[in-house]
Amino acid sequence: MKYKLLGRSGLKVSELCLGTMGFGTEANWGADKRTSFEIMDAFANAGGNFIDTANIYKLGTSEKIIGEYISNDDRDFFVLATKYTLLDNRTNPNASGNNRKNMMRSVEESLKRLQTDFIDVLYLHIWDDITPIDEVLRGLDDLIRQGKVNYAAISDTPAWVVAKGNTLAELMGWSQFIALQVEYSLLQRTPERELIPMAKHFGMTVTPWAPLAGGALTGKYLRGDKGRIKPESNRLNDNSMRITKEVVAIADELGVSPGHVALQWTRQQGFSSIPIVGATKLSQLEDNLQSVDLVLNEEHLRRLDETSVIPLGFPGDFFKEEAVRINSFGGFYDRVEKRN
Q1: Against a cut of 0.90, is the pTM above it?
Q2: Average pLDDT, the chain
Q3: Looking at the record's lineage, which domain of life comes first (predicted)?
Q4: Catalytic one among 3, 57, 123, 333?
């Protein structure tokens, strides 16, 4: 794999990020330690250095497995990203949320499970709609100054909150968010309304989670493999099936797997994007790794865009309408000038 800069930083990360939410066998699903090690071996051998986890993943088992895998000799090669926010202690009312107390407590616990002295990228996992954003940014900046965290990032948060936070951080001289993690795929394009334009403005890298829509875009549901998905899931509706069929058709034309097409689409959208590829089987990762060799042409991108397009709502669609009108007037004035 090639390496990219993460947001407006000098941090070099692989063009795919390994998602480890499935490392551990709690709740009767996921990869055991041996399989998790095999997956991380394959990822590292392919040049992958960017690993994503969270304090809540498999109740901490994901972080523990990663900590056992990464030796002191390898620590500086890997870029470890973890998250805080979600509940991991039911006896403490402050063991969840974005507040400073939970942030500090969660980071200390993650450091122990990861068996490391520092976290490369710490995400706020999900916005709690309670904690002031200045409390979050000041706490993250303190952790960075202490050397326990290198970079701050944010996930699953409204665009206006992130924008306010980065603007405040710039004003106060605090560390800014360099990455934004959101659900983004051909079946989930709503971040294009506000979140992705905001990320582009601030130079943030987008790290899409579920870029394969939980496997839907691999075509497995078309083949009748419903697995653990709920029947009412929007990944099983007629629109999702129609989009997936187009992905499969393009994959067949190119002689690649549908997952390659879906992953590469997220990387060719005109902004810095590093999709998170989760795996509980070695074969899943091996297939996903091959997507970096694919380049979709303009025709493929057009077909995928047209079949999955969403209304941007106001003001996005209004801007498009106004752009058409302005261009029309421009063409009219060009004709007038030429005639004169």
Answers
A1: yes
A2: 93
A3: Bacteria
A4: 57
